[in-house]
Design goal:
With 236 residues, the chain is of the alpha/beta class. It has helices at residues 11-24, 36-46, 62-66, 87-92, 105-118, 176-182, 224-234, and strands spanning 2-7, 27-33, 50-54, 76-81, 97-100, 134-139, 142-147, 153-157, 160-164, 169-172, 186-189, 192-194, 199-204, 210-214, 219-222.
């Protein structure tokens, strides 16, 4: 059985595809997700082999979601949508297949045949990374998109990853690794990324460590490991 999740903001379309996948006898549907945050959570906890992903969704599109997934848990991706115009972009993103709604059972069977071969392969498709401009965060039962220009820092602890602005902080499912690789945030500590553009001064300390004071007054630690990088960033 192929472990799969379905991501679509339309409940009816999502449920219909889940039922069709189970009827093929080839899939175990381990997640049914209505938006990007749910999808990131399902990918992290369920580790599916395949993700059926809608493209046009409110907040974050399927393409944007794809760019926020760690390589270690990246599934094989099949896009499905009601819009033909996204087909070229989908294959540029190395999607395995592109299904048009409403999905015909005969057409789905062709996708199943492809997937059965691919899940046995040791190598998976590589999806080209793009820059992340907004970070999806959970705030009061809503998804809040925080623009990078509003971010002071990002920190992680045992409870998760938090995006910190001048006046609040928000939980995000994105990892420090993804945010470091696909934004202009700079690693200054194993548990911290910092927005250099919002820094006010760097406070030098002993043992080649430091602290960065943000315009908001927040202080971010700089560990010895990243001290040289910070010196280069600040030009001293």
């Amino acid at each position: 059985m192929i472990r799969a999740i379905v991501v679509d903001d339309e409940v009816h379309a999502r449920n219909e595809l889940c039922a069709m996948l189970e009827e093929t006898g080839a899939f175990e549907v381990v997640g049914s997700c209505g938006h990007a945050i749910e999808a990131l959570q399902a990918l992290k906890h369920e580790r599916p082999e395949v993700m059926f992903l809608d493209i046009r969704m409110p907040g974050l599109s399927g393409f944007e979601l794809l760019n926020m997934i760690d390589e270690e848990i990246m599934p094989i991706v099949v896009f499905f949508t009601a819009y033909e115009e996204y087909a070229i972009r989908a294959f540029e993103e190395n999607a395995v297949d592109y299904l048009l709604k409403p999905i015909e059972p005969e057409r789905l069977q062709k996708t199943v045949q492809k997937l059965r071969k691919m899940v046995r392969e040791p190598e998976r498709p590589v999806y080209p990374p793009q820059t992340i401009n907004k970070i999806p965060c959970i705030s009061a039962q809503r998804i809040r998109l925080i623009g990078l220009t509003d971010v002071d820092l990002v920190r992680s602890d045992i409870a998760g990853v938090y995006v910190v602005t001048s006046d609040a902080e928000y939980f995000t499912e994105l990892t420090l690794k993804i945010l470091e690789a696909r934004t202009n945030l700079v690693r200054c500590h194993r548990q911290f990324l910092v927005n250099i553009d919002r820094a006010d001064e760097i406070l030098l300390q002993e043992n080649q460590s430091a602290q960065i004071r943000m315009r908001s007054g927040k202080v971010v630690p700089v560990s010895r490991r990243y001290f040289r990088r910070m010196k280069e960033q600040f030009g001293f």
